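Students often ask why we bother encoding 3D structure as a string. The short answer is that it lets us treat folding as translation between two languages. Here is a chain of 250 residues written in the first language.
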Amino acid sequence: MEPIITVENMTAQYGEHVVLDRLNFEINPGEIFVILGGSGCGKSTLLKHMIGLYKPASGDIRIGDVSMVNAEGAERDALIRRFGVMYQSGALFGSMTLLENICLPLEEFTSLEKEARELTACMKLSLVGLSEFAHHMPSEISGGMKKRAAIARAMALDPEILFLDEPSAGLDPVTADELDDLIIQLSRSLNITFVIVTHELPSIYKVADRVIMLDARTQKIVAEGDPEKLKENHEDQWVRNFFNRQGAGA
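And here it is in the second language, the structure alphabet:
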């Protein structure tokens, strides 16, 4: 199986400060892949590089066989269409209904007529269990529903990959667990590849097919694999402590 995302010798830095040093990993199609680590380890920085907001100081990031770093013009536009992003706060436009929020990328990037855009948006809301709330404003729904609506908007253009930044942040345990169920359902039913930044261990254990753990001390990946196995068997005590929540600093 060819990887859908390849990160090769990628270094990220701000000025002279190196945040991530020569990272190498691959993500397979249909995988739920989690990026984790302690505070300040570069999780969000890595995500921003992977979606093309920042260019790495060196190395490459490829989606399929196309370089995110080097793609320009129409090639870059086509590459960006292959993924959707859910930001930590949800980032819904407060002056628009949920339906209008999801129609926005369809209006911007497709030639669909209004009726077709709204039908597509309703379908996406149905996928995340929000069919009855299409005409609600973001201020009228709960935090968990905002996260679901943000996922629906990220799926508007039928991407192969969804990047989620701290999807469980700010949610109560029951709501977070329901969101985890939704991620698993979407992954399995639609064969979407998920790349998730989080430090929430219950979510990590429930949804992750595979994880990488970043370490601010070395600016490198210090662990990769099944989180349950890393919890018990990793050679580094600091890694085991993190997965057992013993002073590793999330």
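Translate back mentally: Residues 93-158 form one domain. Keep this in mind for the problem set.
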